[in-house]
């Protein structure tokens, strides 16, 4: 009996105009979007390859340890076509140096024209979460109330089929008919992605993810379908169901995901950066003062330690070195590049006395710099936790009222474009910095003249360990997305139960 | 006759479920908008005034000498005033910089002479996002352009998708048309009925919203602001009218309500959600730009060239002196430093190209009437990208004005060398702070209207187009 009902529901949906239009338009939108997104992704992938190559070349040109500042890049996710997440909104390159523990990545998709940030980007998740949920409601709104108006509901109920069987049949038949446009869209999208660009390919893990993305999409659409069934079995007329359904759709899919973040952003703002920046600036000022005091103890004439700046320390050192004997026949050269915390410098053509003095200097200064960088990082990390992370977590929790937001979140975890994946990258970047420090220590770089002097030959940093980008495994992504999947399941069960209870007492005359 | 039809349509709508739901939803949104805005506006204005005062203070201290006004020792900034009407259209202000930097370039040459040089201050355009948590998911602000542009256009679709088909299905359409009433009048009556029924929650929403905003002491809405608000109300009605005509058109074209609903909803999703959302992804195809690496390489090349140019023998012979008449060295150095403007020019040009790319994307986005509506509101509210461009243009004019002022003041001083611009040659005398030109952003209603004119025309034009389409279709529609 159930099968008959399913078949009937399925076929009656298929033969409607709305199915045809919904199928065609949905597939069209998905294919068009997939094409645009693939082009965009291959462009980003090419930029990434260029960046990697550039950075590897830069590394090869490094002649002194003090200029060893490798740059690491975040690879664009191939599944960002399905869900763009943070792949384009957050930075994608980090410089690894002694002076700063990586906190945020820089650069990013719009670094050539940051004003483009005023335009939103989209992905297939947006298309599916708006269009398919709308289609689900459009398919189901007259499922019970419409049949009642037609007079066919009482005919069906007069058969020896239980109400629960009938409801289940409606659900399964309807969902099956919705699955057709969804499956077709996924297949077309994957085809478009694979054929329109030679840079894009999916490995087996990616296919598993796509499969799971498909399943989660089915779950999401089903939430709206069961909601529609519930509404339909609570109302007497199909037009009433439709209105309620549409308004609920507008609220949960269009309004609430935006409104929740908007309210959190305004009512619970983050502290201004100035306080933290001032604290960190002061910290580095203490660093320069300590360096100045070190120089003074060694007999260098520096400015007052309280007002020491990197350039004042540099100039003081240079003035002392200049007085020391140089190497016969070699011109003496110095070049210095310094920011408030970072520094690279080169002295060449200076004699033994000068060199050993500067070696002492480096041996003191660089480990101290690492220490200060750690302290600056703690200040910044606390600030980020108290503000950015807190606000983001709050917005995320609040937005979970909307199934569309839950869906977006889960898709981001599955496509590896969630915030957690970005944090994984930053954590790996921080760990790489530790590797760099270990590498320098193992080569006794801090006590070596090759930190600053090319006179004894360039350093060979070919054996510097390469950056190992994080690769979230399928099960990890699944774990991250599990909360959302469970929530969607609960919503499904809840709405179906509600629909069942309402349908049991539904007056079909 | 038309009022008879209109009245009937209005009553029909007002007793329907969708009207009640619309009223509830729209009022909630407008009230939320007003409350959130008044909550955060005070803080934003306070921050802005604090910064502006700091700048004013710095200028006052620098007025101790004309030279200090020209060659800023400390960096200055000029800030964009936050708009009172940001609750109407936030305009992506959170993704636009709030200020420009003013700085003097300085450096020193060593060798035959030891000389520290300064250039008069120029404008830098750092791209900074002020107090932005980038980890927060991207969201649309709940401003008027969202409430009306997105939500109310959706509601307009729900009001009119069955305007013709419902009557046709019920059988009352042929009854109505069997009267001696021209079809055009019937259609017009339906249009007016839908417009007024939608207008009621809209106007009520505006009222509640504006009352709450006005009650807050932190916000003050002036006379010219009311003009802007009035224009925005008219434009909002025009925008909604567009969707009503669309609904009437589709409804008379297609035989059943269900069909017209599906078509209209999918059109709405494409125009209102998908197209504006896809602009960011398509942007780079519309206009090519040098990459940031290329730009910085260009700047570095200019800087290196400049540094090398100091090695010119004639410059290194003697450093400029504050002595009258001006020495040849002084003149040569002044001449040389004038060329430093090249870097400022290259930056300004790069910025113009970036702006051109954004303008191009906005032009393409105008396929969606929601984007057109948003740009109109932004122009009238004084927010958004167009306003940012105006701000930059005004900053540049201010700089020209300021340098003219320096020259004029310098001419008054008989002891000055009147050579522009070196610290040694510009007058040392203090300047009356009252006379120093201050940066004041002009944003009159007339300029706002001018900026918005094309977009408003586009909305009206689309209205006309859809009106014609609806009339043509309805005149020949089968009403049985």
Structure report:
The complex is a heterodimer of chains A (509) and B (480). Chain A has helices spanning 2-14, 17-60, 124-140, 145-150, 152-157, 163-196, 204-232, 238-267, 273-297, 310-323, 352-399, 403-414, 419-442, 474-504; strands at residues 71-73, 93-95, 333-338, 343-348. Chain A is mainly alpha-helical and 509 residues long. Chain A has one domain. In chain A, strands 1-2 form a two-stranded antiparallel ribbon. A two-stranded antiparallel ribbon of chain A has the order 3-4. In chain A, strand 3 and strand 4 (343-348) form a beta hairpin. In chain A, helix 2 packs antiparallel against helix 3 (124-140), helix 3 (124-140) crosses helix 12 (403-414) and helix 7 packs across helix 8. Chain A is elongated. With 480 residues, chain B is mostly helical. Chain B has one domain. Chain B has 16 helices and five strands. Chain B has helices at 2-14, 17-62, 66-70, 144-160, 165-170, 172-177, 183-215, 223-253, 257-286, 292-309, 313-316, 328-338, 341-365, 369-381, 384-412, 445-475; strands spanning 76-79, 99-103, 106-109, 115-118, 122-124. In chain B, the strands form two sheets. In chain B, strands 1-2-5 form a three-stranded antiparallel beta sheet. In chain B, strand 3 and strand 4 form a beta hairpin. Chain B is elongated. The chains are: A mainly alpha (509), B mainly alpha (480). The interface between A and B is large, with 71 and 65 residues.
Task: Quickly list its features.
heterodimer, A: about 500 residues, mainly alpha, two-stranded antiparallel sheet, two-stranded antiparallel ribbon, B: about 475 residues, 16 helices, about 5% strand, elongated
Summarize the structure.
The complex is a heterodimer of chains A (509) and B (480). Chain A has 509 residues and is mostly helical. Helix content of chain A is 65%, strand content 4%.
Tell me the layout of helices and strands.
The complex is a heterodimer of chains A (509) and B (480).
Chain A: H1 2-14, H2 17-60, E1 71-73, E2 93-95, H3 124-140, H4 145-150, H5 152-157, H6 163-196, H7 204-232, H8 238-267, H9 273-297, H10 310-323, E3 333-338, E4 343-348, H11 352-399, H12 403-414, H13 419-442, H14 474-504
Antiparallel strand pairs in A: 1-2, 3-4
Chain B: H1 2-14, H2 17-62, H3 66-70, E1 76-79, E2 99-103, E3 106-109, E4 115-118, E5 122-124, H4 144-160, H5 165-170, H6 172-177, H7 183-215, H8 223-253, H9 257-286, H10 292-309, H11 313-316, H12 328-338, H13 341-365, H14 369-381, H15 384-412, H16 445-475
Antiparallel strand pairs in B: 1-2, 2-5, 3-4
Helix pairs in contact in B: 1-7, 2-4, 2-7, 4-8, 4-9, 4-14, 7-8, 8-9, 8-14, 8-16, 9-13, 10-13, 14-16
């Amino acid at each position: 009996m159930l099968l008959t009902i399913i078949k009937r529901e399925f076929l009656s949906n298929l033969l409607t105009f709305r199915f045809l239009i919904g199928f065609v338009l949905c597939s069209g939108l998905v294919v068009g979007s997939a094409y645009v997104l693939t082009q965009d992704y291959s462009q980003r992938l090419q930029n990434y390859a260029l960046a990697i190559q550039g950075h590897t070349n830069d590394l090869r040109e490094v002649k002194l340890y003090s200029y060893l500042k490798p740059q690491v890049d975040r690879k664009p996710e191939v599944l960002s076509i399905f869900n763009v997440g943070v792949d384009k909104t957050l930075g994608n390159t980090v410089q690894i140096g002694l002076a700063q523990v990586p906190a945020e990545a820089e650069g990013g998709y719009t670094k050539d024209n940051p004003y483009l940030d005023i335009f939103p980007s989209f992905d297939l998740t947006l298309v599916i979460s708006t269009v398919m949920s709308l289609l689900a409601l459009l398919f189901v709104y007259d499922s019970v109330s419409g049949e009642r108006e037609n007079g066919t509901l009482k005919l069906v109920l007069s058969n020896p089929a239980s109400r629960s069987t009938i409801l289940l049949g409606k659900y399964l038949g309807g969902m099956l008919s919705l699955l057709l446009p969804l499956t077709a869209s996924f297949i077309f999208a994957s085809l478009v992605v694979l054929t329109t660009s030679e840079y894009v390919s999916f490995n087996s893990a990616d296919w598993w993810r796509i499969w799971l993305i498909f399943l989660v999409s089915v779950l999401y659409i089903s939430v709206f379908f069961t909601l529609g069934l519930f509404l339909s079995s609570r109302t007497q007329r199909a037009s009433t169901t439709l209105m309620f359904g549409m308004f609920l759709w507008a609220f949960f899919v269009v309004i609430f995901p935006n409104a929740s973040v908007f309210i959190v952003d305004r009512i619970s703002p983050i502290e201004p950066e100035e306080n933290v920046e001032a604290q960190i600036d002061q910290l580095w000022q203490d660093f320069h003062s300590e360096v100045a005091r070190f120089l003074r103890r060694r007999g260098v004439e520096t400015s007052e330690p309280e007002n020491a700046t990197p350039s004042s320390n540099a100039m003081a050192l240079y003035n002392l070195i200049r007085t020391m004997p140089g190497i016969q026949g070699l011109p003496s050269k110095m070049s210095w590049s310094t920011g408030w915390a970072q520094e690279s410098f080169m002295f060449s053509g200076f004699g033994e006395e000068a060199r050993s003095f500067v070696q002492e200097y480096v041996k003191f200064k660089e480990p101290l710099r690492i220490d200060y960088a750690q302290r600056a990082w703690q200040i910044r990390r606390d600030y980020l936790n108290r503000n950015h992370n807190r606000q983001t977590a709050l917005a995320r929790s609040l937005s979970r009222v909307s199934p569309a937001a839950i869906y977006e979140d889960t898709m981001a975890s599955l496509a590896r474009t969630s915030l957690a994946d970005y944090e994984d990258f930053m954590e790996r970047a921080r760990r790489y910095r530790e590797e760099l420090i270990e590498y320098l220590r193992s080569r006794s770089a801090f006590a070596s003249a090759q930190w600053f002097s090319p006179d004894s030959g360039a350093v060979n940093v070919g054996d510097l360990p390469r950056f190992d980008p994080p690769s979230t495994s399928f099960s990890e992504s699944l774990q991250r997305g599990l909360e959302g999947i469970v929530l969607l399941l609960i919503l499904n069960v809840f709405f179906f139960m509600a629909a069942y209870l309402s349908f049991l007492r539904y007056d079909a005359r | 006759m038309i009022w008879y039809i209109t009245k009937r349509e209005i009553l029909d709508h007002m007793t329907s479920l969708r009207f009640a739901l619309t009223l509830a939803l729209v009022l909630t949104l407008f009230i939320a908008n007003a409350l959130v805005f008044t909550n955060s506006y005070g803080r934003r204005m306070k921050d802005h005034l604090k910064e502006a005062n700091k700048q004013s203070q710095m200028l006052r201290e620098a007025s101790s000498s004309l030279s200090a006004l020209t060659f800023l020792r400390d960096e200055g900034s000029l800030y964009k005033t936050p708009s009172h009407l940001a609750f109407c259209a936030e305009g992506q202000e959170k993704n636009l910089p709030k200020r420009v930097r003013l700085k003097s370039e300085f450096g020193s040459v060593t060798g035959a002479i030891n000389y520290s040089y300064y250039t008069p201050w120029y404008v830098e355009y750092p791209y900074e996002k002020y107090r932005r948590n980038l980890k927060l998911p991207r969201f649309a602000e709940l401003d008027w352009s969202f409430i009306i542009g997105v939500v109310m256009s959706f509601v307009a679709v729900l009001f009119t998708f069955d305007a013709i088909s419902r009557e046709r299905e019920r059988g009352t359409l042929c009854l109505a048309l069997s009267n001696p009433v021209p079809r055009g009048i019937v259609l017009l009556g339906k249009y007016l009925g839908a417009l007024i029924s939608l207008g009621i929650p809209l106007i009520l929403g505006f009222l509640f919203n504006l009352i709450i905003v006005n009650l807050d002491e932190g916000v003050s809405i002036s006379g010219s602001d009311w003009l802007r608000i009035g224009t925005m109300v008219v434009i909002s009605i025009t925008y909604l009218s567009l969707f009503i005509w669309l609904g009437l058109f589709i409804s008379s074209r297609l035989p059943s309500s269900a069909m017209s609903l599906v078509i209209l909803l999918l059109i709405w999703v494409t125009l209102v959600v998908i197209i504006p959302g896809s602009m960011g992804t398509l942007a780079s195809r519309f206009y090519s730009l040098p990459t940031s690496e290329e730009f910085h390489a260009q700047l570095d090349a200019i800087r290196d060239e400049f540094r090398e140019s100091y090695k010119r023998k004639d410059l290194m012979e003697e450093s400029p002196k504050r002595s009258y008449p001006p020495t040849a060295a002084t003149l040569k150095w002044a001449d040389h430093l004038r060329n430093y403007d090249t870097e400022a020019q290259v930056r300004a040009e790069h910025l113009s190209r970036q702006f051109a790319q954004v303008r191009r994307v906005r032009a393409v986005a105008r396929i969606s009437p929601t984007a057109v509506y948003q740009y109109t509101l932004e122009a009238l509210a004084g927010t958004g990208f167009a306003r940012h461009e105006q701000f930059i243009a005004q900053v540049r004019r201010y700089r020209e004005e300021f340098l003219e002022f320096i020259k004029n003041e310098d001419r008054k001083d008989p002891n000055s060398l009147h050579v522009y611009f070196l610290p040694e040659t510009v007058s040392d005398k203090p300047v009356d702070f009252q006379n120093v030109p201050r940066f004041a952003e002009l944003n009159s209603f007339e300029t706002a209207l001018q900026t918005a004119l094309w977009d408003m025309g586009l909305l009206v034009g689309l209205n006309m187009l859809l009106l014609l389409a609806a009339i043509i279709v309805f005149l020949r529609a089968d009403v049985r």
